[in-house]
Every structure is written in structure tokens, then in C-alpha cells.
Amino acid sequence: MVKITFKTNDASVNKVCEQDPVIKKLITTIGDIDVVLRTDYFASLVRSIIGQQISVSAASAIYGRLQQLVNGHITAEGLLEQSTEDLRSVGLTKQKTKYVQDLAEKVKSRELDLQHLATYNDKMIVKQLTNVKGIDKWTAEVFLLLTLGRQDVLAADDVGLQRAAQWLYKTEKSERRKILVEKSELWKPYRSIAVFYLWEAIHLGYVVDYGTVEEVEKV
Question: Domain holding 9: CATH number?
């Protein structure tokens, strides 16, 4: 297991807090956090494709059934051995079945070279990944965050991040993506830190259970 630990006394975390007093309230309230990385590149991309536009619980259930189908280890070769009907049987939609098959074919043929992907910069990685059917900019950015642990990534189209930003900055739903993008300028060159703390606010139930971060501070 590979993980990144963010501590409130880290220089990078302090930099984000200095530049944005509002995110500082959230970071101070939550404290240190660990982020466990998805070190299997191929399985991580498959997992992200499965998770597109469905709930986390539904995605986890489908991913678990897919693991069982391929005897616990998701590989390009293993997926290509499965029929379309077998892949559909675990809960994949017709479209997502095509997506994971296309990913598997491109990895097997080395059209997408996962072995050396981490040697490229963020922009080049996004460009390479989005050449695969079903991998959009959001999926590529989540890969940068949760698999490669890159330090300055903003997945602006992530609905969870938008919800957390709406809650933290007390804005309207229609403005939540805009406020996320605007505030992210304050977090550079460590936007990923703010992203992980905003996700953590959701995981801890803050966004649902409390009206504001100030209410959480009082608990």
C-alpha cells in the first residue's frame, strides 16, 4: 500500500492555508489526512471508467463483481479474454463495456504505454489518456490525483468537489464550479492538497451533516 500523508504543519499545506483563509478552516478542522494511492494503473483507469456518472457505492459493487469475474486481478489480457456478455453481466453498461475493452486493447498493443506514463508531465498524461474511448478529462485528472499523486491538479468537473466547494464557500449550486475554479488559483502550486481536503469533507459527512465549516469547528 502506498499512501501520501498531509500534515497541517507541512510547508505545502501551510502555503495553501496562508493563501486561502477559508480552506484553512477546513484543513485545521480535519487535521492530518492519509491518501491511499491506487498503484495499479490499469485497474485504476478501469475503476474510474466504471465510476463515471454513478454513485460511489454502485461503482464499488460493479468493480467488485468484475474482480471476481477475472479471479481477483484486473488486467488488459484478463478483460480481453471475457466476452461482452460476461462484462455486461457484472453491471457494466453497453457503453462502458466498449470503453474498458478499448482501454484493454490499447494497453495490450502498447498504443497506451502505462509502464512509462508516470515519466510524462500532467498535460501530456491527460492528452494520452483522453485518446482512449471513455476517458475524459475528469477521468484523467482523477488518475493524476489518486494514482500518480501529482501535487497540482484540479478536477474541476468532479461533482463531489463542486458540492464541497459550494458548502465551504457558501455559494449557490449554479455557482459551485465557478467558485471552485476561482479559489483554486489561491491553492497553486498545491491544488491537489485542497482537492483531497474537500473530498475528505464529503467522506466525513461534513457537507451533509453541517451547514457550514464553522458549525463543524464548534463540535
Answer: 1.10.1670.40
